[in-house]
Amino acid sequence: MAKFKVPKEIFHGLGSLENLKGLTGKKAVIVIGGSSVKANGSLERTENYLKEAGISTVVFSGVEPDPSIETVLKGAEFFTQEQPDVIVGLGGCSSIDAAKAMWIYYEYPDSKLEELAAPFAVKPMRNKAYFVAIPSTSGTGTEVTGLSVITDREKGTKYPIVSHELTPDVAIIDGDLCASMPKHVTANTGLDVLSHGVEAYVSNIADRYNDALAKGAIDLVFKTLPTVIEEPNNLEARQAMHDASCMAGMAFTNVWLGIVHSMSHQIGGTFGIPHGCGNAILMPNVIRFNSKVTNKYSELAALSGRTSAEEFAQEVSKLRASVGVVGSIKEYGVSQEEWDAKLDVLTQNAMDDPCTLFNPRKPKFEEIKAIFQACYEGRAITL
Questions:
Q1: Is-contact 238 184, C-beta < 8 A?
Q2: Residue 154: left if φ>0, alpha if ψ -120 to 50, beta else—which one?
Q3: How far is residue 108's CA from residue 374's CA, in Å, rounded to a whole number?
Q4: What is the set of domains in the chain, with CATH numbers?
Q5: What is the distance between the alpha carbons of residues 119 and 20, in angstroms, rounded to a whole number?
Q6: Which residues partner with 57 through β-bridges?
Q7: Cβ of 234: how many Cβ atoms within 10 Å?
Q8: In what order do the strands lie in the sheet with 86-91?
Q9: Which of 106, 132, 372, 381 is the most exposed place for a label (fewest CB within 10 A)?
């Protein structure tokens, strides 16, 4: 028996931000990152629509990429001071992920990050507020997922907090908000969408509901990401990528992810490699590794007229290269000395990551290590 959990309301399409006027509440805290949502007018429009709904607003700003537990705790303290009954995550995935974690600490101040990272450890939410997610990047799908990834910089690792309790109540998928995304952000986040679709499709608890969404998202990425890179002001293409991100998010929040993410969480937390970039480096070799136990990659290969898992892995590599993303961890600038010193810790942390539980092939420590090493060097594996 399976469960399909998504936000109660999803508004999508160019101009859909206007649906904020229909929300109910008294006070909203809007969580943002830096200046981009101010510069492109998204924050002002959000505030104005909420005011039309009779909801007063205050802003918590300064969420950094790969949000830290320190920022989360500051935000929770701000929430406690302001006492909102609506929480709005506006911007890239970092802002929305951080807002979700702040929400947990607002409702449960004694929470501990390590404990929250255990599978399904989050207690019942919505005791004080409900959650609205408005993404301005087409990547993580966090606007429809029960996932928040928070970084402990002292330990150099990312902690994925996984719970359906964190699935937003309202998601707004407005491609107009993505028009100002720089090329490198568009590329990395678009490849992140691809990784979500692929890992959801081959999850060991995949089902036909989520397969349809995952496969549809993958198809959209291959057809649309190159267009968005070349034509950044093409709003229809922006909306298609935004929809793909949401579709992949709905898929993976219900059947979860695999070792691409288990491993990417580690190289992101340790070396600062952007999440989508890390996923794209790892994905072809994880496809090769997992293809020994599933034929579903061959089904995905058919989307581009191919027939085998190896051909699909190569198509992923070609797409990655075509949008200007590096093909190895070494190319990103991680030295051999740094890599050798951290490899065993990275491997063990990836083994312990909750996403590993849903990978179609159960990996051994030495197998994860071998995949890491091959991806550091930029060569194909044959495990």
A1: no
A2: alpha
A3: 42
A4: 9-178 (3.40.50.1970), 184-377 (1.20.1090.10)
A5: 32
A6: 28
A7: 16
A8: 9-12, 170-173, 130-135, 86-91, 27-31, 56-60
A9: 381
Helix or strand or coil: residue 159? strand
User: How big is the CA angle at 33 (ends 190 and 160), to the nearest 5 degrees?
Assistant: 65
Place of tokens 């091959």: 374
Distance CA 180, CA 358 (A): 35
**Bridging pattern class, strands 157-162 and 147-152:** antiparallel
Angle CA(15)–CA(16)–CA(22) in degrees, nearest 5? 130
User: How far is Cα of residue 205 from the mean position of the Cα atoms in its chain?
Assistant: 19
- Please give the structure tokens belonging to residue 198: 């692929």
Which tokens sit at 149? 């990834």
Torsion of CA 27, 32, 34, 40, to 10 degrees: -80
DSSP run (H or E) holding 30 = strand 27-31
Task: Kindly tell me the burial class for residue 363, based on how many C-beta atoms sit within 10 Å of its own C-beta (0-12, 13-18, 19 or more).
Answer: buried
In the block, which residue shows the tokens 């510069």? 39
Q: What are the angstrom distances between the C-alpha of 59 and each of 47, 50, 80, 99, 108? A: 9, 13, 13, 11, 21
For every residue of 277-301, DSSP letters joined together read HHHHHHHHHHHHHHTTT-SHHHHHH
Cα torsion 253, 258, 262, 263 to 10°: value is -140
Q: Report the C-alpha gap between 379 and 71 in whole angstroms.
A: 37
DSSP 313-341: HHHHHHHHHHTT--SSTGGGT--HHHHHH
At 1 the pLDDT is 67
Over its C-alpha atoms, the chain yields an Rg (Å, rounded) of 19
Separation between Cα atoms, residue 251 and residue 205, nearest integer Å: 11
Could you state, in chain order, the average pLDDT of each consecutive group of 10 residues for the chain (383 residues)? 88 98 98 90 97 98 93 98 98 95 97 88 97 94 91 82 93 94 94 97 96 97 97 96 97 94 92 94 98 97 94 97 97 96 97 94 98 98 87
Alpha helices, H only, 53-138: 69-82, 93-107, 113-116
Give φ, ψ of 265 to 5 degrees: -55, -35
